[in-house]
Amino acid sequence: MLVSGDNVENTQSVMLDQLPDDVLLEVMQHLDLPALFTCRLVCKRLGFLALHPCAWRRRRVDYGLRRWTCPVLRLAPCLESLELRVSSPGCHKLLSASTKCRVSELELDVESRRAASHACRIIRNQDDIGGLWGLTVVFKNCAPGDEAAALLAAASLCGPEELIVNFFGYKSGPSRTSRTSVDSPVVHDTESRSPLKRFSASCFCPQLEPVCNSILATHAHTLEQVLVGSAKVESASGGTSYMTSVAPLLAGMPNLQDLECPLLPGLEAVAACDSITRVFLDMVPNTARAVRSAAEFLRRAKHLRDVTLEYCGHLDGHLGVDLVLALASGRSRATVESLTFYLGDLVDVLLPSLLRALPSLPALRLLEVDDDSDELLLGITPDTVPVLESLRILNFGYSPCAHRWLHRDSVNVLLSANPSLLLCPSYSDMFCPIDSGDEANDSDSSSDSFDVTPCKACAMGCHQGLLDNIVLENIERQTVSSWTPLPRGVPQ
Questions:
Q1: Where, by residue number, does the polypeptide cross the bilayer (predicted)?
Q2: Per-residue pLDDT tens for 81-106?
Q3: Are β-strands 422-425 and 258-262 bridged in parallel, bridged antiparallel, or unpaired?
Q4: pTM score over 0.90
Q5: 274: which DSSP letter?
Q6: Which residues contact 100 (CB under 8 A, 6 or more apart)?
Q7: Residue 465 Cα distances to 405, 431, 471, 480, angstroms
């Protein structure tokens, strides 16, 4: 039965009127910004619903949608996340400091000292609105100074659970003092604010040390995760020696669980935090005193479960040996379940120590290293690591694909000795690309063809079911990973 155009319009109108608001709002959540703003022009009901918080609370407005930033700041009631370039000209510069749009996660790119003052106004405006959960401030080509310190102080007052501060693109050297008047970064009472749980500062330089220390001290009882970056500004004391005040502050945090830092002076004091379960140590500065302090921390810490040791190529090898052996002889040796060991250029010195330490870590389930030597692969046995479930191998590139690497004798010995081990090399290609010849025949020009000659392993035609198993496993996990797992039970 055919329906006239008028009847179709009437039917659609009746159906729309019959839909409840919650159904329409569910549909609006999946519209892009142009379509959502167009709904405001259809009728009063859709215009009202188009500005309802339920239509906006899951939206993320990043730099790619900057042409819509001004309408969003003017009309949207809330956003899940918003990214702003504070230094960029446009109407959003004024609106960002006066908008009524409540933002859950805010990222500000600050590219000049003057922009830092405006960023303070943006943060204070969101503080007045309420609801800010995460705040990221990225300083680009802007050396730390008074404005940056004032901005950090304002950021710590607005009550986010997560505060991240990054610096990019400036050269080492003394920071200039601002000629403009900037309020002193005083941290006020935060009892009525949401607790700060995660704090990350990629540049812990002398200019920012007082305000960063103030943040750490003020939120000592609530911080659970702290990332302290290496110094990027030269100091008279050299390296990161001016960070002597950081470790005592960390030691006074009763809920600290996750710590990433360089080798801080006095790091052994942080072992007093019984709540720490994860630690990432960046091996700088490369001094015997700093390494001894870190080694003592690894010996004293009681409940470590996830440990990462990242070495620089210029670190003396004998210093690194102290750390891995300290972990194996420490109080956490029976609780460590995950160990990431980036050896860098010190494989010859550190690998034997790692193999010596493994039998002393009976709970180790995940091992990640940047070496695929036969010495390592043959050293992984049920006797040395009895409960190891996954071995991740990073940064080896002499083979064109993981399939060829799978045919190595040491790999076969490893898999035979550890039948339940999940081996994960960091190859992006499981097999070499194989040219069937059809594409070349369809092309009018042979100049566009590529050399896709497979390696000997791929030319053998074995392990054909491996790739399908990998794809299915990644789909089931619903994750995107750079690792290529080699599961068991794969047809040859």
A1: none
A2: 999 888 766 666 778 888 999 999 99
A3: unpaired
A4: no
A5: T
A6: 77, 129
A7: 17, 11, 10, 20
Instruction: Identify whether residues 377 and 248 lie together within a single domain.
Output: yes
The three-class DSSP label of residue 102 is strand
pLDDT at 475 over 90: no
Query: Cα angle vertex 84, ends 82, 89, to 5°?
Result: 145
Distances (CA, A) of 434 to 427, 441, 448, 471: 17, 15, 16, 18
Q: What's the whole-number mean pLDDT along residues 451-460?
A: 69
Element (H, E) at 213: helix 209-218
Angle between helices 146-157 and 113-129 (to 10 degrees): 10
In Å, what is the CA distance from 13 to each residue of 5, 10, 25, 41, 85? 12, 5, 17, 15, 43
Same domain for 160 and 270? yes
135: which 2 tokens? 């705040």
Residue 387 sits in a domain whose CATH number is 3.80.10.10
- DSSP per residue, 31-69: S-HHHHHHGGGT-HHHHHHTTSGGGTTT-EE-GGGGGGH
Mean pLDDT of 164-183: 53
Average pLDDT over residues 108-130: 85
The number of CA neighbours under 13 Å toward the Cβ of 163 is 26
| pLDDT for the residue 314 | 56
* Of 185-199, 294-308, 472-486, minimum mean pLDDT range: 472-486
Return phi, psi of residue 279, to 5°.
-140, 135
Range of the domain at 51: 19-55
On whether residue 81 sits in a domain, the answer given is yes
Task: Tell me which DSSP letter residue 441 carries.
Answer: H
Nearest to 131 by CA among 109, 156, 159: 159
Q: Which residues contact 36 (CB under 8 A, 6 or more apart)?
A: 28, 50, 55
Cα–Cα distance, 479 to 60 (Å, whole number): 21
Domain assignment of residue 89, yes or no: yes
Q: Which residue has the higher pLDDT, 477 or 22?
A: 22
Average pLDDT, the chain: 77
Is the domain of 41 the same as that of 73? Answer: no
Would you place residue 50 in the very low, low, confident or very high pLDDT band (cuts 50, 70, 90)?
Answer: very high
Q: Are residues 270 and 164 in the same domain?
A: yes
**Residue 451 confidence class, pLDDT cut points 50, 70, 90:** low
The first and second tokens of residue 18, run together, are: 């019959």
- Spatial contact of 336 and 308, defined as CB atoms under 8 Å apart: no
